[in-house]
Amino acid sequence: LYGSNRRWTALNTSWTRIGTGNPTDARHEASSGGKSMSASDGIDDATAVKCLISQMCESFYNKGWATGTSGGVSIRIGGPTSDNSTAPWRVFVAPSGIQKEDMIGEDIFEMDMDQNIVQKPVTEGLRLSACTPLWYLVYKNRPSAKCVIHTHSLNAQMATLLDPTEQSDVFRVTHLEMLKGVGKHSYDDVLEVPIIDNRPTEDMLSDQMEAAIQKYPKCNAVLVRRHGIFCWGDSWEQAKTQLESFDNLFESAIKMRQVGIDFSAIPKVG
Known about the structure:
about 270 residues; alpha+beta; two-stranded antiparallel sheet; about 25% helix
């Protein structure tokens, strides 16, 4: 398994390490070598995406980011194609109230860009996540986004509480190596991640979240106070990579605060 086969499902629109991410670029599996399950293996795009979302949810559960059925993932495929035409968008979303480590592809909803259910899960009794309007909100305000992830990472939650007054509407950090991993930032840039206040259900976050996305166009995430994080990317690989980088930065900031270092200040030396 680990010698020549990749563990993640590859999509026909998957990210590439050697291209720009356009449909005409080399596929991820072609640019990085090795084999993985993909739509070219005889399974259709929808099945591949559904399997991939299940893999991602299990991975986030194992990190402690999707405890107790929390969290979720949305991926969309379609849009501009290599022959300059446009394919209909297809949006795939994880359901609500299910053990994320036990998800399978047959648990996933398929929808259109008007939030209509195109294909219900094969598994009976599942319902749409309260995060569903927020997936679409990101796709609306970030047209290039193909994947949105929501987790209840403890580091993300605690990052929103580093201001003891709980009045701050932004988390700032600078001069850390993992800033390179969140997109559009380098080591010596100042990263600003907006913080919005929590509400009883995720769908009630829409107005705050849209305002935050519009106010901070350089950031690919929004923190929810005492709750967690929403993060997105132009591919599932990019969204996952950026989410992991954000979490590392939050953990670094928490530990820097513990030893009396101001993580938002430019170092005096170095």
